[in-house]
Structures are given as C-alpha cells and as structure tokens.
UniProtKB/TrEMBL annotation:
Domain of life: Bacteria
Annotated InterPro entries: Aldolase_TIM, BchE-like, Cobalamin-bd, Cobalamin-bd_sf, Elp3/MiaA/NifB-like_rSAM, Methyltransferase_Class_B, rSAM, rSAM_sf
Keywords: Iron, Iron-sulfur, Metal-binding, Methyltransferase, S-adenosyl-L-methionine, Transferase
Cofactor(s) the record lists: [4Fe-4S] cluster
Database matches in Gene3D superfamilies: Aldolase class I (3.20.20.70), Cobalamin-binding domain (3.40.50.280)
GO cellular component, as recorded: cytosol
Keyword Nucleotide-binding included in the entry's annotation: no
Pfam families, per database record: B12-binding, Radical_SAM
Stretches assigned to the Elp3/MiaA/NifB-like radical SAM core domain: 281-485
Name this protein carries in UniProt: Radical SAM superfamily enzyme YgiQ, UPF0313 family
Presence of keyword Methyltransferase: yes
SUPFAM superfamilies: Cobalamin (vitamin B12)-binding domain (SSF52242), Radical SAM enzymes (SSF102114)
Originating organism: Alkaliphilus peptidifermentans DSM 18978
Length: 536
C-alpha cells in the first residue's frame, strides 16, 4: 500500500466528507492506484457512542437516551429507502437522528480534548500521556489506528483536517507511527491545515512529525507530491500549494498553482468508506469549485471568483446516478460553496428528466434568479433543504462584508423556497468588526419578524481567517496574530480564528453576550453539547 488517506478523530460524522474520495479517485486516474481511505473518525465515533449508550447512561444522559439508541438504526433505514411523499416517517427519522447527534455530542465531550487555542493544543500534545488506559480516544489510537497504519506499510500518509478538534489526535497518530516507522512521509490538507498552515509550520512541537502542508485545492499538488516521494519524479520546490521545511529546516512556501478543471476530476470514490456508520445515509457531491461571488470579506474563498469552475451538467447527473446505484443511497448533500442559479436550475431539470428520484440539500446565496418558478423546479428535482448565509440584516454591515445582498431580496427568495416546499436554514454572524450592538439586534429582529419563511437559524460568532488581516485599517482591527489561532466562542462552535484587537464597535465580550442572548431567543443552540456543531 503506497498511500493511506486519513480522516482523523474527532469530528462531525453526520455523513462522509467529500475531499478524500475526490482525491483518491484523482490519484487512481493518474497512476497511484495503490491508495486507500481510512475514516478513523467515524469508526471511533461509532464505537465510543455505542459503548456509552449500551452502558449505564443514567449518570450522563437523559432517560430518553436508550430510546434514541434503539430507534437510531430504524431512522437510518427510513431515510435510506424513503419515499419523497412519506413526510411523517421522514420527519420522525430526521428528528431521531438529530437527537442521536445531540446525545453523541454529550458522549464525546466527556472524553475529547476541547481545543481553546492552537497553543493549548501544542501544550497538551507535549504533556499528554498517550498510554493512559482511562482515555478511550488514546486507547483506540494506540490499539487500533497506529497498528492499522503500520500493517498497511504505506510510503505516505495524508490527513484531511476539517475541524480544530482533529489537530491534537492527528499529531498523536503521527508521533506514534513515526516512532515505529520513521520512513513514512506525512502531509496535511483540508481547511484547518490550509488556513492555519503558518501556525503548523512554525510549531516546534509539531515540526518533527510531519513533512508538508497542502494549501487550498489538493488534487494536483498531492499528485505531484506523491510522484516526488514515491517515483522520485520532479522537485519539491516545483510542487504547487506546498509548504514544507527544506534540508536546513527553513520554511518554504511554494506558489499557489492553477486549479484542477472540474471535468478532469473523476467521480468521488467512496468504496473504502464504512457508509453504514455515518449518522445519515447521505453522500456528499460537488458540481462546482470556488465561489462565483467570491467577495465576502470574512470568507476564506474571498477573491476566488476568477477561479470559479463548473462541471459538465451531463457528467454531474451521470455521476449522481452512478453513486446512487453503487451505494443504494438516495440522499445527497451538494457540498458546493455556492451555485449559480441558472446552472443549478439546468442541472435540476436534467435530474428530473433522468428520473433519478433523489433528495438533497445545498448551500446557496439569496439570489433573484431563484424565482418562484425556479424554486418549484428545484423542489421537483429533489431539493429539500437549503443553508443560506444571510450573515446580517444591517445594511452597513452587509456593505462592509461585501455580501451583495439586501433584506428585501432575502425575504422574497426565502419565501419562494418555502412556498415551494423547501426548508430554509439561515446562517448569521454576530460580532463582525465595527458592528455595534444595535446593528446586531437588527439582525436578531429580522429573524424574529420572519420566522414564517425559515425553518432554523444558526448564530455564529465572527471568525477572522480571511484576507481581512491585510486590511486592518478598513476593519478597525490591529495586532493580528496568525501564529496562535484561538477560539473566542468557548461555549459554542469548535472553530479557530486568528487573535486580534478591535478598535471600533462591540468588544469580544460584548458580542459574545449578544450571541448568547440571540441563540436563546431564536432557539439556535442545539440540545446537548456542541461538539458536533458546524466548524471550519
């Protein structure tokens, strides 16, 4: 086995993640067929949660926990083979899995490390006892994950880091494997590694245990890295998107290369994934890359509108059909950052024409192109749930964010989707730099006044991790520290951001108080611990 691609613990296991299946398919296409995906996260999550629920749950959970465990499998079966018209059963099944995830969050929060900052992760890594028998996470790493990697005898192990909560355990796996086989090469990719790569590269605690970080899109870069390490082809300094240390220990940052064309990326390969272990019987899929808007100030994709790419529409529909047949799954999540309305409607028409009989969710912007007629077309194709990033209802903040939206359009588009039978979920940001209390309350009031046009709203704190760090005067921030990412929202989402000082608007303490109030007023906080809340 040449390459092992790892999704490490601990993170969300609602459904499989798209990155590694796409990467494996691409590597196979270009000559690296000896690769395998290991989602150790879903394996340990399933084991830990079932162990907790089958034991004495009285001390940890409510009386309903055993019922949740009992009905969880039934709920999955309903969603796997559900008929689109059977709303009563599917509503019960969705609610049951939601309750399961809440209980699961409680389970994991009792044993998982809570990363409050990058520095705290480093300190824990340096001081932790990996041989401890009373910690089931380290025990699983020691007794299951490390032996499995060693047994496969890979030349390269790549880790996809999507959540801040994965960093500590990834480093522990690398350290333990490297003690046994120091010749294995390790690289990191995914959002956490891509955004905070400087912190990883500067870390003296982590440096001995990994060999490179792939920033942004990974297919071409990982292919060239594997060619270099396995086939001795090319040079390290020619690999796009790569950050690494040279032979003298000097940090090197190769330029960002061209993105891989969508039609050059094969259908994602889920063949190694234990799909029965994920909470929802659902597959992720991508038909686009980047964001066609690409201007939102807070977003890591800012400026990427010039790199927005779409796949051939027939290729999209053919691959969805093939995945449905291969894995006997009808639920999909389109994991695109944003999809142009016309392109999306054209794809929806093809899905309907092919009679695919699927249901799916998606991320969208509240664009005028989503007319009543187009929303009906989307519903007919199987669209049942949309997450919209409306972020704010205050005009000044929306303009400062460069969202390109207004509240009147938001309301009309949300109404169009709701009337078509599609469930709207909204994401809002509290604490954007310079935001005053009354402006944050304007967003909250918008949510309270328009409850009839959305199903649920998620209130998230502002996080600094975009190129706003290069425009400190415009956003009235200073003393940005890119080497010690941290969390301000300790009680909520497990997501890092750069530390910084604010010169205008609410302080961090003030916006966290508003955030807490807003979550209570609109019931934004899910029951139980937020270990599985959406993060970077």
């Amino acid at each position: 086995m040449d390459i092992v691609l790892v999704f490490p613990p601990l993170g969300n296991h609602e459904h499989a993640h798209i990155g590694l299946p796409l990467l494996k398919a691409y590597l196979n296409k270009y000559g690296h067929s000896s690769s395998i995906i290991k989602d150790y996260n879903v394996e340990i999550m399933d084991k830990l949660i079932r162990d907790f629920m089958s034991g004495d749950t009285k001390t940890l959970f409510s009386k309903n926990s055993k019922n949740v465990s009992k009905n969880y499998t039934l709920a999955q079966e309903i969603l796997r083979g559900r008929n689109q018209s059977d709303k009563l059963k599917t509503s019960w099944a969705t609610d049951m899995i939601y309750k399961y995830m809440a209980v699961a969050g409680d389970c994991i929060s009792t044993v998982g490390f809570d990363p409050i900052s990058f520095k705290a992760v480093e300190e824990e890594f340096l001081n932790v006892n990996e041989e401890a028998e009373n910690n089931p996470v380290y025990k699983y790493i020691r007794e299951a994950i490390v032996p499995d990697i060693i047994e496969k005898k890979p030349s390269i192990v790549g880790f996809s880091l999507t959540y801040a909560s994965q960093v500590l355990y990834t480093m522990s796996i690398c350290r333990q494997v490297r003690k046994i086989n120091p010749n294995i090469k390790f690289f990191f990719g995914g959002p956490i590694a891509s955004i905070f790569w400087r912190a990883f590269m500067k870390s003296s605690a982590f440096a001995p245990y990994f060999d490179g970080i792939i920033r942004e899109q990974g297919e071409v870069a990982v292919l060239k890295l594997c060619d270099y390490w396995i086939k001795k082809k090319g040079r390290m300094d020619e690999i796009p998107n790569l950050a690494y240390r040279d032979e003298e220990g000097i940090i090197k940052e190769n330029p960002i290369g061209e993105n891989c064309p969508m039609d050059d990326i094969p259908m994602p390969d889920f063949s190694d994934m234990p799909l029965e272990l994920y909470a929802y019987p659902k597959l992720p899929f991508q038909m686009t890359r980047g964001c066609y808007w690409g201007r939102c100030a807070f977003c890591g994709h800012r400026g990427c509108n010039s790199k927005y790419m779409v796949a051939n529409k027939k290729k999209v529909v053919d691959e969805i059909k093939a995945l449905k047949e291969q894995h006997d799954i009808r639920m999909f999540h389109f994991a695109d950052d944003a999809i142009l309305p016309k392109y999306f409607v054209d794809v929806a028409k093809l899905i309907t024409d092919e009679g695919l009989d699927i249901v799916y969710s998606v991320f969208l912007r509240t664009e005028k192109g989503f007319s009543k007629e187009n929303c009906q077309i989307l519903f007919k194709s199987g669209l049942r749930s949309v997450l919209f990033g409306i972020e704010s209802a205050n005009t000044r903040i929306l303009n400062l964010m460069e969202k390109g939206m207004d509240t009147n359009t938001m309301k009309q588009v949300l109404r169009n989707f709701m009337e078509a039978g599609i469930s709207n979920h909204l994401s809002c940001i509290i604490g954007f730099p310079t935001e005053e209390k009354h402006e944050a309350y304007e967003t909250l009031q918008f949510l309270l006044d328009n409850k009839d046009i959305y199903h649920k709203a998620y209130i998230t704190p502002f996080g600094l991790f975009s190129d706003m760090v290069d425009q400190t005067e415009r956003f009235s921030i200073e003393k940005v520290d890119i080497y010690n990412p941290l969390r301000h929202d300790i009680d909520g989402y497990v997501a890092f951001e750069y530390s910084y000082n604010r010169n205008q608007g609410m302080s961090v303490e003030e916006y966290l108080e508003v955030l807490k109030e807003a979550r209570k007023l609109i019931d934004s906080v899910p029951p139980g611990a937020n270990y599985f809340s959406k993060s970077l």
